[in-house]
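Marked as duplicate of an earlier ticket. Keeping the data here for the record.
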Amino acid sequence: YLNVNFYRYFIGREDQSVNEEVMIGRIDQQIRVTKLMLGYCDVTKLKKRKLRHYMVRYLEIMMTVSSILAIKSGTEENMEKKKELWQYLRKLNLALYLRLRWGFLGQGTNLPGKSGRKFSIAGYKITQKFFGFN
């Protein structure tokens, strides 16, 4: 027996899909998956309280990720995609929209104007340092 690693997985390579720049470049895929998740079932009507709570929080994270990536991209096209995503949720499920849009993360990623977007990015960077993601 040789105590040798024949395979080693390196976390944090430049070309990985979790790299922020790669995610921004693939924001269409992020938004598509978020829409699929939103449309799959009405999570507000799930009978099991813990499952309902988990799914609402998970969708909140997905909406936050999509929104912050659109903001960080700095393009008007992606800001329009962000707006359209929130409108899609509003049409699809008003109760869930209100819960996510007016929650802490929803408000933090939908602050008006250029200064609001800068504040959203600052909040993202602070959270990134604290939790150590990307």
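See parent ticket for discussion. The mean pLDDT is 90.
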